[in-house]
Amino acid sequence: MAAGFAAATIWQTTVVRDYNQDQYAEAYAEIGVRYDAQHPYTNYDITYRTGWGRLKAPYSYPYYVFKNNLPNGVEVSVYVMIPGRSQPDVVSASATWPYI
């Protein structure tokens, strides 16, 4: 008699990070991921989402930081309002899974 059994799920963890900068600002995004080693792109959980953005020294322009939680990660954008410009300077970082 043949015995059948299902393979156990083997969970692994990883961290996905992204960092971007320009002359005026910098942005950082990070997620933690727990994933099935055999099916990493279809069986996973985002365990945490974090990130930050800031204006770089020595600038003192007005700026806004937006953190957007995505279904599969996080995105952080920094908008710097530079006098005399019609559009803000934008720096973004995003960390998502699957990371391909």
Question: Could you describe the 3D structure shown?
Answer:
This protein has 100 residues and is mostly beta strands. The chain contains no helices and six strands. It has strands at 11-21, 25-36, 44-55, 63-70, 73-80, 89-96. The protein has a three-stranded antiparallel β-sheet, with no helix packed on it. It has a three-stranded antiparallel β-sheet with strand order 4-5-6, with no helix packed on it. A hairpin with a 3-residue loop joins β1 (11-21) and β2. The protein is rod-shaped, with a radius of gyration of 19 Å. The mean pLDDT is 93.
Notable characteristics:
single chain; 100 residues; mainly beta; three-stranded antiparallel beta sheet; 0% helix
Q: Characterize the main sheet.
A: 3 strands, antiparallel
How confident overall, as mean pLDDT? Answer: 93
Would you list the SSEs in sequence order as H and E?
Answer: EEEEEE
Oligomeric composition of the shown chains:
single chain
Spatial strand sequence of the major β-sheet = 1-2-3
How would you describe the shape?
rod-shaped
Strand content: over 45%
How widely separated are the two ends? 43 Å
The number of helical segments is 0
Assign the structural class, choosing from mainly alpha, mainly beta, alpha/beta, alpha+beta, or little secondary structure.
mainly beta
| Rg | 19 Å
Q: Tell me how many strands there are.
A: 6
User: Runs with pLDDT <50, length 5+?
Assistant: none
User: Share of helix among residues?
Assistant: under 10%
